[in-house]
Specification:
3 domains, Alpha-Beta Plaits, about 45% helix, 5-stranded antiparallel β-sheet, 13 strands, 16 helices
Length: about 475
């Protein structure tokens, strides 16, 4: 783990003043532009960064309304952040940490580029009233003790801190492992008031340069108080490495266990068959992706009458396995509004059982199934979902479904994967192999006729076995 720290002990100087420099670092250079450019970098060829970034502002009118809107990821989002800080009202402005297809929802995620933890340290007697930099230093120390990599940067949000670990841009498929990292960070940083409700991928945090209306006047402005790297370019982690260091069982250890099992099998000591399966979280993330592909293939965006209940129930079950229970209700409400136009009250009524079971599972409750205590969330086999939604083979192929397929399509996908693997290894297509063999056979027949070469001579000449040259000449002569 790197020891290049951007921390310095707190001084009497206000950390928000532009010329606040510690060990050569001017944290004031990390403004709204730098904030957005690091969270949502400009689009590059082949980049995952697409879709929109969500902004929000809490209004202090009679209704105390929450206004939310989006801007295209990349330069447009950066320009929007800069514009917001130029307006008169800079209080309580937020920005999403991920990008989305059309609006802020876990089911709409297009790219995740950071892990994070929201620390409400003002709720802890030990840290209440302490200077943000002193608390940030203690946070870094605790992370080092837990052998977790340093955050890319830490922001003071007025009454707490936000720790951010920047990573490469990741697709939604990584969400199960990303959630595991988030949960681990929240557990380790619990002594600093880590908010367990702020670990989901659709989270918004305060924009750098904005103001927290509820904070003390001298700490109202949101700004950087610690960084790893430099304020202009905070360090960016490789997610797989970050996850390996943060999680108790690393991917490398799993690979090692698989290698050991392969060795034992080769020695005849392991008689069990191969275990090829998806975890519960990765299975349900793939189910949700298939459901969205099916909806887009069948109906474009909205679901027609008669097909809403079944689709949304399955989608809600999928969300219960990949979304933190604290935000599951919000996520299901957003998905139901998007897919079926349901009102909030209607969604809560129809999906209450799914939400209730997810909360019971989070509390550690189980149910007995097959003589075993298991997670009490709903679970459904892929074959059951295919039957429920009446997904025919043609749709399975046309929509590009991966899990919600019948046995015939599973066989086809297995063959397709095998062919793709062969292509990656440079193995030629069967038709190409046959054409090459026929050409070799014709040449061999000519050389045998013109020069009297024997089968063994021809095999040595072409660098193949005698059996291969015989087969090639036989096919060429037919």
């Amino acid at each position: 783990m790197s020891r290049r720290l951007g921390y310095a002990p707190a001084t009497s100087q206000d950390f928000h003043t532009p010329q606040c420099q510690q060990f050569g670092f001017d944290y004031g250079t990390f403004g709204p532009r730098q904030h957005l450019e690091n969270l949502h970098p400009y689009a590059r060829p082949g980049s995952l960064r697409k879709g929109v970034v969500a902004f929000a502002q809490r209004r202090h009118d009679a209704d105390k309304s929450w206004k939310e809107w989006t801007a295209p990821a990349g330069s447009a989002a950066v320009d929007e952040a800069v514009r917001l800080l130029r307006q008169d009202n800079r209080a309580d402005i937020y920005v999403s940490q991920a990008a989305f297809e059309k609006w802020r929802s876990i089911s709409q995620i297009t790219a995740i580029g950071a892990c994070y933890a929201d620390l409400d340290y003002h709720t802890r007697a030990r840290w209440r009233g302490k200077a943000p930099r002193d608390v940030a230093a203690a946070v870094v120390g605790l992370l080092e003790e837990a052998m977790i990599p340093h955050p890319s940067y830490i922001l003071s949000t007025g009454r707490g801190l936000v720790c951010v670990w920047l990573t490469e841009l990741l697709p939604r498929a990584v969400l199960p492992r990303w959630n595991a990292v988030q949960k681990r960070l929240g557990t380790v940083l619990e002594p600093f008031g880590a908010d367990k409700r702020a670990l989901d991928a659709a989270r918004v945090f305060r924009l750098v340069g904005s103001e927290n209306s509820r904070a003390d006047r001298d700490r109202r402005t949101v700004g950087m108080v610690w960084c790893h790297g430099s304020p202009e370019a905070p360090a960016r982690h490789v997610f797989s490495t970050l996850a390996d260091e943060a999680l108790p069982v690393t991917h490398a250890e799993l690979v090692s266990l698989r290698a050991e099992r392969a060795r034992r099998k080769a020695e005849g000591k392991d008689k069990t068959g191969p275990a090829v399966y998806l975890s519960a979280a990765t299975y349900w993330e793939t189910v949700l992706t298939d459901l969205q592909r099916l909806r887009a293939h069948r109906h474009g965006r909205g679901l027609p009458e008669g097909q809403r209940d079944a689709w949304l129930f399955v989608a809600g079950v999928a969300m219960s396995w990949i979304s933190p229970p604290e935000v599951l209700g919000r996520e299901i409400i957003a998905l139901a509004h998007e897919a079926a136009g349901w009102r909030t009250s209607e969604t809560k009524s129809r999906m209450s059982a799914v939400i209730k079971r997810a909360r019971q599972a989070a509390a550690g409750q189980t149910v007995t199934f097959g003589g075993h205590e298991v997670d009490c969330r709903y679970r459904m086999k892929a074959s059951t979902i295919v039957e429920w939604l009446r997904i025919d083979p043609a749709e399975q192929r046309a929509a590009g479904l991966r899990v919600l397929v019948d046995e015939d399509r599973k066989g086809e996908r297995s063959v397709e994967r095998m062919e793709q693997s062969r292509r990656r290894r440079g193995v030629k297509d069967r038709r190409e192999q046959q054409a090459a063999r026929l050409e070799m056979g014709r040449k061999a027949l000519y050389l045998r006729s013109a020069q009297g070469m024997t089968r063994d001579d021809l095999a040595a000449h072409f660098g193949v076995s005698a059996g291969q040259i015989s087969k090639a000449m036989r096919e060429a002569g037919e």
